[in-house]
Structures are given as C-alpha cells and as structure tokens.
Design a protein that fits this description.
This protein has about 90 residues and is of the alpha+beta class. The protein is built from one helix and five strands, in the order H-E-E-E-E-E. It has one helix at about 1-35, and strands at about 45, 50-60, 65-70, 75-80, 80-85. Strand 1 and strand 2 (about 50-60) form a beta hairpin. The protein starts with a helix and ends in a 6-residue tail after the last strand.
C-alpha cells in the first residue's frame, strides 16, 4: 500500500502535463493541417519565412503550392510552411 501512495504524484504530474502541454499542441496541429488543406487559388498567405504572397496554383496530389510574391514572380512553397492565411477567397459555386 505504501508503494501505491508514492506512485500517485507521478500520475498527477503526467495528467497535468497532458492537459497543459500535449493536448493544446495536438489541437493546434490539427487546426494548422485543416488550414493548409483548405488553401485555394487567390488566398493571401504568409509563410514561416515571412514572405507574403497570393496563392496562384494548388495541386491536390502535391505537397507544394505556387505563390506570387510580386507581379509576374512566382515561387514554389511547401504547403506545411504556410503560417497564416490573411485573406480567404470565397469558394467557387
């Protein structure tokens, strides 16, 4: 019975760590994945490197998108490096 009493604080620490660190991080990751999956042409985005541009081309099967950073200048960017979507375009009907 004495050993069981010494294990309880260990479980409490793990429970607190789960609810304060692990769970919020998983929620944030899911939100980011949903945001990246919902990217479409015309969205204005900011990359993790700080580049602001407009999405020109999105391929469903590829992990890259093309972003126009100046008129006539496009770069290929890995989808997961998109940090924020500033202006979202309306879906086509």
């Amino acid at each position: 019975m004495q050993e069981f009493g010494s294990i309880i604080p260990l479980f409490l620490i793990f429970g607190i760590m789960y609810f304060l660190l692990i769970r919020p991080q998983q929620k944030k990751l899911k939100e980011h994945q949903a945001m990246v999956a919902a990217l479409r042409r015309g969205d204005q985005v900011i990359t993790q490197g700080g580049i602001v541009g407009k999405v020109v081309k999105v391929k469903d099967d590829d992990s890259q998108i093309e972003v126009e950073i100046a008129s006539g200048v496009t770069v290929k960017v890995v989808r997961s490096t998109i940090a924020t979507v500033m202006n979202k375009t309306e879906p086509a009907k």
